Each structure stands twice: as structure tokens, then as C-alpha cells.
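REQUEST FORM: STRUCTURE PREDICTION
Request ID: SP-0412
Submitted by: Lab K.M.
Chain count: 1
Length (residues): 736
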Amino acid sequence: MDSLSRRRFLKITGASIAAATAVTSLNSVVKGAKTIEEKNGSVVKGIQKIPTYCDLCFWKCGAIAYVDNGKLWKIEGNPIDPLSNGRLCPRGTGGVGASFDNERLKTPLIRKSVRGEDQWVKATWDEALDLIANKMKKIKTNYGPESLAFFSHGIGGNFLKHTFKAYGTNNITAPSFAQCRGPREIGFELTFGDVVGSPERTDIKNTKCLVLLGSHLGENMHNTQVQEFADAVGAGATVIVVDPRFSVAASKAKHYLPIKPGTDIALLLSWMNVLVTEGLYDKDYVEKYGFGFEQFAAEIQEYTPEWAYTRTGIEPAVIRETAREMGKNKPATLVHPGRHATWYGDDAQRARSVALLNALLGSWGRKGGFYTPYKFGLPGYPYPEYPKPEREPADNPGKKYPFAEGELLSTGLREATITGNPYPIKGWFVYATNLMQALPNQQETIKAIQNLDLLVVVDVVPSEIAGWADVILPEATYLERYDDISDSPFKEGFIALRQPAIDPPHDQKPNWWIAKKLADKLGLSNYFPWKNVEEYLDTRLKSAGLSLNEFKKTGIIKRPPKPIYFEDGVQPFFWTQSGKIEFYSLKLKEHGFDPVPKFTAPEEPPAGFFRLLYGRSPVHTFSKTQTNPILNDMMSENEVWVNADIAGRYGVKNGQYIKLKNSDGVISNKVKVKVTERIRTDCVYMVHGFGQTSIRNRKTYLKGASDAQLVTKYKMDPLMGGTGMNVNFVTFEMEV
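STATUS: Completed
RESULT:
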């Protein structure tokens, strides 16, 4: 069977929907509270506690919104939600600020002048949607429906995806694949026949040895993982952190390895060499489930710790000691797969190296390693069949990237928009993603935009991509709208409800309303047979013997627990070509790639330049939360981390403002310097999402520096088309 076939026909589901459903009561939380429908005049008296789930990142934590006499007060974790466990991260707790943000879009806007000048005319919803629908009809007539591309991020895009599938396009994508997790998923799928998924299937709470390679837990604030990280540390787990920067996670580590950027594969190969040559790997597991181990062992024989030392800068004794720690704690050793795994252009093979190391340790499917997730399995809505597109998606012509299956490449659609190959892309519809910050090389994005007949942006605030739009549609925040039901695979099967706690303050509309009204104007009303979103949700729930009214009270419905580990009865199955864990990949060999990963030395920076690294903040999500007044107050600008020795050599002082210039001559906004010994001398680091250039966002305009502005170079992963973006070098511009 094709090693990547699982995504095409198999969904992770729970037991039959007819099985008993565990509906957990939230009486202790909502006792005495009125629901949002029980209104006295225009305002509900007293405090309401309204279950929902968060929208500040993909984790979708269950939450309780508090409304005091009709006004949004605060938000906290839902105690019965398995993702939040009653606690939200700083971003989630500050989510109420999005509703109070005075930078919010208030009404539809139509472009007044040329693209990029940020000049607008206010419009009614009918005027804006009529303009969009008429242009979409022209694109469909002149070029075909596939010439419209939809870029989206998050579950809020579900209803709009439905509209565009009904329209006839298959060019539907998200930057979260080619710019984030795609290489990781392909690397693991080529090894185990299955993906890591979202949320990640990592059993951090029960691990005895946690290995983090560039995974900034505690800064990259994925709630459940951070809670489990604290549990693991409290229980005495060994933590090994590999990072050019001494991160928050590194402060909890027994072993910190300050690796040379770009040499992770060399370290991973040498760790595997130690495990195999010293017999520390899980022999029974490998013999039972492995394929091609002998060829794999022969391939890695040369990658000794001494060989790796000259590439990584990590002492051979440290490599051996940390490998032995992993072997000692197997199978409860978890080498974390990471997220935002697009670094150097060889990222799918780097992810495969991580997968192979976990395979040697026997951690896949085992307690303390990777559990087997399952979904609640709520049936979908009985929609009419979509029209079949006449052309293949435009993102990967000729299957240049043979393993980019299942999800489209956003940069590939951008390239097709620029070149017209394999066919013209003439319309972009962008939902909840700021492509100017999300995609590498902003000038290529602008070049593509100039070839469009239509660019529509749906957002809460006027992001940078919105400044290039023909039409901007203002969306209600997640605390002001219903969204689709969350049914993510996890350690237990559950579904979560997002419902409005308050009304939008101006003329903002929820995404489901926008999708339905646009479909009406496109003559696609038959694809929206429901009158409103409550009817849609109730129809799905009734198919499982549930009801929306009951769901509103708890926000969470759980299924009875199931085994999630091999040792507890989960039947091991590997959807690979061999039906086993592939230490040696015949699939890769057939396509002309290395069946076992090899190391290629990264490009060295020019004299006087430093590799630009970037990461996350615990109080911000990408570039979407900087205008939030609560979160902006906690962090209003970023800093550039500079090694203390380098700072002394260049005369740079802590707290001084400088500019950064990359090797293509692009100069950043001014940014404050953080002089520190917690970073190597060959790189600098900053938090992503700052230095925004939308003049309509006064709080964020030119505050800090934008790594996205400086990422003018990127390397395409040859396996799946991911964009390696840690390949840019910068130097200091002292005059500001």
C-alpha cells in the first residue's frame, strides 16, 4: 500500500457513534447562570458563565467566558476540557482584549485607490458581497473556478471552505503546512505511516526522558504540552534541550546542548549510532515492528560522536552521555517532533531522523512516548456533493514535490499566481492569516497580488495583507460567534462548542454568515440548506443522539475512554509500504531520495553576518494578537538577542536600538538589543510577528523588527515543498 495513502481515505475515529456517549456535567461551573438566550430586555442581568473554546491558537482549549450585566468580563479554562484542564495560557486569558481592541475593523471596506495604498471607502455588506460575487462569477467564466484560491488558518475557515468547494475550486490551502508542520508530518508518515497530528500525540506527562530540539516549550505556549512539561519535570524526568539559544525549556534541562545552527541531522545520526553500536535500542520492538534495520544500521555506522563533533560543536562525551540517558529510559523517552519545522530546506529528512530515533527507542505507540489518538467521531452535515474540479490543484505542477500529498503548498499557489503555470490564478480569498508575515519573501507575495483580479481579506483587525485587498470584510471575534464543532483527535474522544458570549460591537459578522450570504449571491444556496448556524450545529448533534441546547450548558461532551498505548491493547498498525516501521525507506529510494537521512553541511554566514533565528512568545500568536490591548501591554515590541561577546566587539549596548540588514540589503525597522550570554556567537534571535507596517494599526506600526521582512531567501524541501526559512543572515546597522 502507498505509504501516504492513509490521509486519502482513513480518519482517526472513536468507536461507533451508537456507543454510549459520556456527557460530562458542568453544573459546578454554570449553576445558577442564565444562558445567552435568556435576555431581560437587551441586557442579561447578573453574571453569565458561557462555555466556549479559545481561538488564540490551533490548540482550541475549552474555556468559560464570564459576562457581567451584558459586558464581557474575563475568560478562564473549562475544568472539564481535556486540553485546558481548567487553565488557559497567557494568550488565552488575554483573549477578551480582542473584543475591546480599538483597532478592530468595524464595517466592510472597498479599495479606493491602487493596491497597497491603504485607502478605503466604507460599504454595506450587500455592496461588498455583490462586488465579490460578481468578480468571482467573471473569474469562473473567464478562467474556470479553480482560478480562485482560498488561504485560511484555523477552524473558523470551515464554512468558507464549504462555499469555495461548492463554487468549484480545489485550490484551498493554509500556511500551516508548507510554512510550519508539513515536513514533520511527512517525515513521520514515511517512517510510521501516520502523522503526529494537531494537537500533537506526545505523551509528555508520562515521559521519563524528554528531548527537545529547537522546541521552545514555555515560550511556544501550547497549553496541554506546557502543563504536561511541568508535570514531567516535577516527576523527575530527564530533560535534554538542543538549541543554539538557552531557552526557557533549557533552564529546566539536565543537559543543554548549544548546537551549531543547521546541524541537527548530524547530531541525530550520531545519537542513533551510539544507540545501535552500544546495543541500547529497543531490540524486541525493532525486531517485531521494523523494516530494513540492517541496511539502516550499516548506513549510520560512520556517524560517530567524533564525526558529529566537528559538525555540531557538541563534545563526543556529551553525545554519548545523552544517548545513554535516552536508552536508559526507553520506551518512555520522547524525542519531541516539534512544530514550525521549516528551517533549512532538508526538514522532512530531519523530521524523519527524529522519527527514526524514536523508533529505535520504541516510543511510538508507547506510554511516555507517542500515544494513539482517537476522535469523538461526530458525523458531518449531509451536504450535496461538490462539483468535481476539471483541473488538478495548481500548487505542485508535475508533482515536483512528490510527497506533498493531502495538503496544498501555499507558496506553490503564490508561484502559480505569478507565472500562470499550470493555469492562471486570478483571485485570492484570505481568511484569518496575514500572508505578508506568514510567507517568506514579501516581494514575491506583492508580485503575485498584482496579478490578481480579486483579493478579499476577512479579518478582525486591518492586517498587512488587508492593506493590499480589494475588499476587506470585518469578522466577529471568537467570543462573538459560533464556529464549527471542534472534534480533534486526542487522548480521549471529545467535542467542544464555540458559542457567542456577547454580540459584535459594530457591523462585524461571523464567518458562517459571510459564507452563507456569499453562497446565496453566487447561486449556491442549495449548499446551505440550514437557516442559521444553530440549525446546522443541532443537525450534526442530533445525528449522534445529542442536542445543541444541552451542549451549550457544558461546552464539552466526552466519549468513554479507550486504550491509547500498544501495551494496553491498541493494535499496532503502520500504514507504510512495508506495513512496518521503515528504517530504510524503499519509497524514498524509488523517488531518488536517501532511504536513510544523510547530513549536508549548512551554508556559512558571510563575514560580519549572523544567522537569523526566530520563535514565539507566550503572550502572542504569530502576528495576530499584537493589537490586543491586554497582550500588547505585556509585550509591545520584540528584541534581538545578541551574544555578549559579539555585542562587545561591535559596541552594541543592552537596550540600544539598532537596525538589521540582511545579505540582500533589506533593512529592518529599529529593534531593541538584548545582550545576553544565552545565545551562540554565530546567530541572533527575535520573536516573530512584530515590525508590522499597517498604518491603520497604531499600536503595532513599526514596533520592533519583522523577521518576515528579512526572510528574503528560503530553501524548498525537495520531498514536500516546505520552505526552509532559517537560511538568512543579518548584520547590524548602528545608525537609527
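NOTES: Confidence is low (pLDDT under 50) at residues 1-41.
Reviewed by: T.R.
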